[in-house]
Design brief:
Structural class: mainly alpha
Shape: globular
Radius of gyration: 18 Å
CATH architecture of one domain: Orthogonal Bundle
Number of strands: 2
CATH superfamily of one domain: Winged helix-like DNA-binding domain superfamily/Winged helix DNA-binding domain
CATH topology of one domain: Arc Repressor Mutant, subunit A
Number of helices: 6
Distance between the termini: 41 Å
Strand order of the largest sheet: 1-2
CATH class of one domain: Mainly Alpha
Length: about 140
C-alpha cells in the first residue's frame, strides 16, 4: 500500500469522489455481469431487500426519484427472470431473488472489506459522515438549479 501524501491536494473534492466512485463501480459491474445483471437491476434488488416490498408505483418513484435512475424498467426485467414478483399489490423478492441478492451482497461486502483493509474504522466513519454531508448539500443545491 502506498503511503498517503501529506501535501494538500489541489484536486476538487468532487473529482476525488467521482474517481473513487468510478473505480468501485467498475468492480461492481464486473461482479454483476457474471449474473447478467446491470446496475439498475442491482439497485432495484437492493432497494426491495433493504426497504421491503412496496407497490409498483412506489418502487418506481423510489428508483427514479431518490436513486436517480432514468426509468424503472429493471423491475420488469427482474420479474421476467424470476427474481421479483408482485404479491398482493406489492413488489417483493422471490426465493431465487433473495438468494441472488444475498450472494451478491456478500461478495460486495467482501470486496469492500478488501479495499478498506488497513484503513482505521475511525477514518471510515469520518469518510461516511463527510460523504453524507456532501451528498445532502449537493442534492439541496441541485434543487436550487
Amino acid at each position: 500500500m502506498t503511503k498517503p501524501s501529506t501535501k494538500p491536494s489541489t484536486t476538487p473534492f468532487g473529482q476525488d469522489i467521482g474517481v473513487a466512485s468510478a473505480a468501485g463501480r467498475r468492480i461492481l459491474l464486473a461482479l454483476l455481469a457474471k449474473d447478467q445483471l446491470d446496475f439498475p437491476e442491482w439497485l432495484t434488488l437492493t432497494t426491495v431487500n433493504n426497504e421491503g416490498p412496496r407497490s409498483r408505483d412506489a418502487l418506481e418513484a423510489r428508483l427514479t426519484g431518490g436513486l436517480l435512475l432514468e426509468d424503472a424498467d429493471a423491475i420488469a426485467r427482474l420479474e421476467s427472470r424470476g427474481a421479483l414478483r408482485e404479491e398482493s399489490g406489492a413488489i417483493e423478492l422471490t426465493g431465487a431473488g433473495q438468494a441472488l441478492y444475498d450472494r451478491l451482497a456478500l461478495a460486495v461486502r467482501d470486496i469492500g472489506g478488501q479495499l478498506l483493509d488497513g484503513v482505521s474504522p475511525d477514518d471510515v466513519a469520518t469518510t461516511r459522515r463527510v460523504l453524507r454531508t456532501y451528498t445532502e448539500r449537493a442534492a439541496a443545491r441541485a434543487e436550487l438549479g
